What we know:
single chain, alpha/beta, four-stranded parallel beta sheet, 20 helices
Amino acid sequence: MNELNLNNLTNDFPLLNKLMALEEVVWFNPNVTTLDQGLPYVGLDDKDIHDASLRLQRFAPYLAKAFPETQLSNGIIESNLVDIPTMKTALEAYYQLPIKGRLMMKKDSHLPISGSIKARGGIYEVLTHAEKLAFEAGLLSESDDYSKLLEPEFREFFKQYSIAVGSTGNLGMSIGIMSAKLGFTVSVHMSADARAWKKNKLREHGVNVVEYEQDYGVAVEQGRKEAEQDPSCFFIDDENSKTLFLGYSVAGDRLKQQFEQQQIVVDKAHPLFVYLPCGVGGGPGGVAFGLKMAFGDHVHCLFAEPTHSPCMLLGVHTGLHDEIAVQDLGIDNLTAADGLAVGRASGFVGRAMERLLDGYYTLTDERMYQLLGQLNQAEAIKLEPSALAGMPGPIHVEHNTEYMTRLGIDDSTLSNSTHLVWATGGGMVPEQEMAMYLAKSSI
Length: 443
């Protein structure tokens, strides 16, 4: 982007000056609409989510046998919903501000198989592709017991095909582990910021890990190029895949069921605020879509990004989406939050969801590490740095008078609200690595 264009942009969007200065910022989207007004832009609806849910139910008998850690949930990949009251107290003390609503956490950080939110979308897309191939070959039908996929003939069949993906780490983990288990030849193209332990774990599962010295964008581009040269290779596109998006969206109805079990009400008088760490946007975008379909206009979703990688905020705020990258502003896209180290946001997610997302904010790596230590001390929950991005959200929401007024929320309504921090990864971090994270938290 030339200097003239950048000058025009910063004149039109003064917030970009703070982004370039790597300051923590909060932006509440003035163009947010009702679900009815925003839904047509997504191009998907509740029928698509229902189909995804049914597909996961069909695969459940297979998953329960292939991955013993899913037996307790009968092969359904789902995470716990927990209160974090001591962390709420710690946040109030740090910011010297009260949080009137209830503070909870969704522990996608501890999802089975791959230990992150990517176990939703990544595994779902691999299963969708496997089902399609098996259907076309006449090896499988919807009425079958899918545990037959464990039989040797299926591994031999899938061995003819390959799967490729570009990843900063967690998506590669979910796709690599699932693909290899089914019998696919799988290559994960990983950017420089991917953690060494994630690469090692994939190799232990027989996955071909291709490493790059550049960032996520290059890994995706190279993975796509390699797949194009092989007609038997299926490339999973984190930036544009509606299948991945739908895999994540199933979380909405499942959370609704968990709320009902815990007698948590979500309505006009009991609003729900959800804080989602955002990298390229597929995971948080899909979850937010599912939440909107489950709770309607009573749920308010916000994306959280590192100060060094604010790609979704940049894309939506300027309206340029994937036509602009943080590097165009001179921002380096280097962050300890490896899963969020993305310079250019998904154009599909940005355009589909921009009217349904209430806001965006950024935070520094130092703050993520600090929160990591605070959470471990307060609740004995260990997460990777990127998974802490959602934690300051309740402070930003409750203490923005203009935003609260726009929503028509007063103090009494706030007291009835639920704040849900979506923890996205950390359940499989090796002890030695976690000790290093905690050492950086300076608690």
